[in-house]
Amino acid sequence: MRIAIDAMGGDHAPHAHVESALSAAAEWPDTHLILVGDPEVLQPLLGGAPHNITIEPAYEVIESDDEPVKAVRRKTNSSMVVAGRLVKEGKADAMISAGNTGALMAIGLLVVGRLKGIDRPGLAPMFPTLDNAGILALDMGANMDAKPEHLVQYALMGSLYRNKVHGIREPRVGLLNVGTEAAKGNELTKAAFELLEQAPINFVGNVESRDVLERPCDVLVCDGFSGNIMLKAIEGAASVIFKLLRAELTASFTSKLAAGVLKPNFRRVRDKMDYNEYNGAPLLGVNGLVIKGHGSSDAKAMKTAIRQTRTAIGNGLIAALADEFSGK
Amino acid sequence: MRIAIDAMGGDHAPHAHVESALSAAAEWPDTHLILVGDPEVLQPLLGGAPHNITIEPAYEVIESDDEPVKAVRRKTNSSMVVAGRLVKEGKADAMISAGNTGALMAIGLLVVGRLKGIDRPGLAPMFPTLDNAGILALDMGANMDAKPEHLVQYALMGSLYRNKVHGIREPRVGLLNVGTEAAKGNELTKAAFELLEQAPINFVGNVESRDVLERPCDVLVCDGFSGNIMLKAIEGAASVIFKLLRAELTASFTSKLAAGVLKPNFRRVRDKMDYNEYNGAPLLGVNGLVIKGHGSSDAKAMKTAIRQTRTAIGNGLIAALADEFSGK
């Protein structure tokens, strides 16, 4: 299998990307890693690279503050666009980028192209849960306004992903809502609820944002706006609480001593809330595997993304999605 | 001033309500507290009540699982409806209830009535912030679907509330959104952004849910659906983190010992995230003061709600709101 990596996108590019590629190439000899970027930058970092890493030249970079669609249209020789083209032309089975999220979504639509039968691709990161199993949540920001039918497409794609990539037989699908009763919600969720009940999925009903971390479902569907609000609210609350704890626990000599004893305990709690544990969010609904890594991905997180991508390729995710939607 | 208290609504009714009324009556002799409920239940709890507490008989109770509008229409002799009628008829300056939220909103609309010039009342609780000053956020669930103009009305009402009740001169108004740039968001927030820029308020732009606890604004406006998603996501994340910490810190003898030393520190962090600190959310946009207390309000929380209600009455909030919107 061949995986293209946008070697220039993300906070720790290109070092983390080269490092993870070297590690992945050694662990999985069947995998060909294509580092897309400036050879003059990448070659010295690679050194005497193994046979299953190659460089695909690309001399521009899409920056994190570039306007997505404009950047994709103008920077046709950027590492991200070139990686997308490799997928489109069948020269790579998947691409991974930790760069500008909006630009990656634009590449999904404009370069790789939509999957037949899908109106709107959705970005589907894994949410951490207390039992470490995680929830696949979509859409988390690819589309701000959604119609009820889009949520049904998300439910179908998310179910297939959890089945093919994570081996869950009948993934439980929940609808993000303000209450658990069927009649709750806004116009969108009320209409989506009825459609989801008819869909060929294991629909378990409404899910409240306060319960998400307890894993009430395996796939959570929502519009990109409220999904993004939830995601950032949880991240923000966690970050604030840890900041408060740090301030309190270093306030006095005694508290510092006691906190020192508890350091491993605190670390375990922090790790549970860590989104990097599940790095690699698929853009579901495009005609190829397009994977978004966290902007802050280090080499370990990038390797997690590569591992997930390998599983998705190995289990024929895109062919299964194409099958599912081709008749629709 | 006269404050009607729904003495039968909430998890700790009627005991907490009677206790808080007795305490408030003693502290504020200028305030007349009207306990609405079954005299046979309330009288024994009151004992020899001071002259500024009276009982207004009401023999039905709206339960937390009653269907709101139906309950308000049918249980016309319930404590919540009778309290609303006292406000409507000018026999009370305000009402407070810790009962069924949906029913209280229905009473706002059907019994008390909308304020002239307001399309949709909004429920405006205070969000805790790190500096303890809090943010007034609306709407948090009174209306699931909002139009851009509703968000502008929320901004005007919220500003006036922060000014009249909390003495903030030019309250900073933020718009809940998925990014801070002006062009971010869904159709609703994009349109609302433009209107808010023109409105006679101190608009500070978009606010992300991850930053809310740092108090980027004094008033936060949003539609009821995403507001409720954010509120419950923050509550849920905080509750999960404290649960994880508790499990970790009681896991071994050593960790228990160290955690014992840090108990006051943990409590301070927990208190910062406590929504009960700010009990008493006004239903803004109805023609009278209707205050929602937390369902789990104890006597202390109920007294906080009474204190806030007194300030709102004393500063002429409803007259100021009526003035603001009468020409619109």
Automatic annotation (TrEMBL), chains A, B:
Coiled-coil parts of chain: none
Annotated TM spans: none
Keywords annotated in UniProt: Acyltransferase, Cytoplasm, Lipid biosynthesis, Lipid metabolism, Phospholipid biosynthesis, Phospholipid metabolism, Transferase
Catalytic activity: a fatty acyl-[ACP] + phosphate = an acyl phosphate + holo-[ACP]
Superkingdom of this protein's organism: Bacteria
Keyword hit for Membrane: no
Major localisation: cytoplasm
Protein localization: Cytoplasm
GO annotation terms (biological process): fatty acid biosynthetic process; phospholipid biosynthetic process
Pathway, per record: Lipid metabolism; phospholipid metabolism
EC number, as in UniProt: 2.3.1.274
Family membership: Belongs to the PlsX family.
Name assigned to this protein: Phosphate acyltransferase
Species of provenance: Cohnella luojiensis
Organism placement in taxonomy: Bacteria, Bacillati, Bacillota, Bacilli, Bacillales
